[in-house]
Amino acid sequence: HRGLRYALYDIHTDRTSRANLALMGELLVAIRERQLLLHYQPKLNLASGRVEGVEALVRWRHPARGMVPPGDFIPNVENTDLISPLSRWVVEEAIGQLA
Question: Most buried residue among 83, 84, 86, 88 by CB atoms closer than 10 A?
């Protein structure tokens, strides 16, 4: 039959999707309410042993969940429109801290 489609419902996938959607909504609030912070990781030149730069790593101080590791939200953000405001926040925050 043309146009006949089916989909399997998986309660685990549904719960995960709902949790991720809720977390993304909370991340918008986190950006506005300054719940995010940056940690800096030095980038070393292995040949010289000198620090040649730093990488800014975002952390989320969630009011109810405590520190949310980046692995719990960054992969989801990368596939949504939230990547732009988050990236903008990281750049502006890092520049502000350098000033």
Answer: 86
